[in-house]
Amino acid sequence: MNNPRGRLVLNHSTHIPGLISILERLTHYDGIQTITPGVIASVRSHSPKLTLKISVPIRGGFKVIARQGKTVQEVFILTGLPQEQLEATIATIIKRRS
């Protein structure tokens, strides 16, 4: 777990607070190739805790939606992992964070 296997691409200046630390931990897991945070936006509904939910499959991975408060951000994860295993890995990381 000392050498990251995946790569975290930071090409935006703003991110949901706490998201980058979760994504950095995710890069240490086998099967994760590239993680790219995307567009950040405001929404009407409120999510008190930071949550990550797999939205749709994309070529080579999945699009994940990160939500906290009234802010939402797309995250693109390129991986060879199946959806269930990626969901379990994300849940493990978030549980350790709490």
Describe this structure in words.
It is a single chain. The chain is an alpha+beta fold and 98 residues long. It has two helices and three strands. It has helices at 19-26, 83-97, and strands spanning 7-8, 32-58, 61-79. Strands 1-2-3 form a three-stranded mixed beta sheet, with helices on both faces. The protein is globular, with a radius of gyration of 13 Å. The two termini are 20 Å apart. The mean pLDDT is 91.
Brief characterization of the structure:
The chain has 98 residues and is α+β, with helices and mostly antiparallel strands. 23% of the residues lie in helices and 49% in strands. The mean pLDDT is 91.
Features:
98 residues, alpha+beta, three-stranded mixed beta sheet, 2 helices, 3 strands, 23% helix, globular
> Structural class, judged by helices and strands?
alpha+beta
Order of helices and strands: EHEEH
Helix coverage percent of residues?
Answer: 10-25%
Q: Round the mean pLDDT to the nearest integer and report it.
A: 91
Number of strands: 3
Unreliable residue stretches: none
Q: Could you tell me how far the N terminus lies from the C terminus, measured between alpha carbons in angstroms?
A: 20 Å
Strand order of the largest sheet: 1-2-3
| Count of helical regions | 2
What composes the largest sheet? 3 strands, mixed
Shape category: globular
Cα Rg: 13 Å
| Strand coverage percent | over 45%
